[in-house]
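Example 3.2
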Amino acid sequence: MSTDKIRIGIVGLKPGESWAGIAHVPALQSMPETFAITGVANSRLESSRLAAEAVGIPHAFANAQALIDSPEIDAVTVTITVPQHLEVVKAALAAGKHIYCEAPLGNGLAEAEEMAALARDKPGVTVVGLQARVAPEILYLRELLSEGYVGRVLSSSLRGWAGNWGPTAGNLKRLGYLLDKRNGATMLTIPLAHTLAGLRDVLGDVTEVSALLDTRVPEVRSEDDGSLLRMTAPDQILLTARLESGAPLSVHFQGGMPNGTEGLVWDIHGTDGDLRVTAPLRPQPDGATRHCRRQIRFRRAATDADAVSILRRCAGGAHSRQRGPQLRTYGAGHPHRQRECIELRRRSGPAAADRCDRTLGRNRFAHHPRGVEPPPADA
């Protein structure tokens, strides 16, 4: 394998539209000293060539196996539909490649366990794309709880929406497979699973759980042509659980777009304070919906409140300023450096943080709540 840059081959790329196009490509291109995208494979060679030309990728392959077999590829990024993951991941493991596979890893637990078992015996690095675990807001929440900001956690509750599993949805020609639970790409395994991965890192493991899943909308109307598509995937998921700390947890995720409410609300209540994380739900160019701007609110007493807005750049979405210290983050790139900048902004003020931001080549901004003066930069 290459001893310099890690040469990436992407399986499943539609520039500017697919998840690989709006997330993976920009993140990899922001780290040219470490990564080089050298190959792409779609279902047809013509499609691969068009994607390669649009992004500036030197090699286009007729299929995933050809990409995997190429000596020009060190690591394979798997961003195709979930039912195709098993075949491609097994082939990449057999070829000794590094692998980054989008979540969910497999179509069901059995497939995921099979791939995990195979990976344990291989020398390459294998990663499942649970990007919420390295999101700046999740790292920040972990830090706040580890520092005892809320004291002992008494309880936590989370409610969220997922637009692709509501009464109407867009881009069903490409995303319609999400509505069929047999494909393993549902509201349970994608948005809720990503959310729970971050929640677990913040609050710890679950020791007891009870859940209810239901499909209340059996047909979804296409926003493109008005046609109806049958849905068997759950659009209502409710669970109650006990965390390893003993604190109770409740979660309710539902399909569709929220009407006048936030797309995500997560409360953490403790003996000494409370935290609330909120985010709107916004449609994206690929037809999916994502929680794009997350705000963390702090409260230790009735008169003590502050807020930090962490703005995640969703493709095609506008940035807006809100009262409170604010950050812009770009995908999952440079997670450790992003955390360093958050630390500087919290402890040393915006001047020091802006210097950190500039080292990342980012255009971030910050201001403080009315009546709250930032600490001196050399504090």
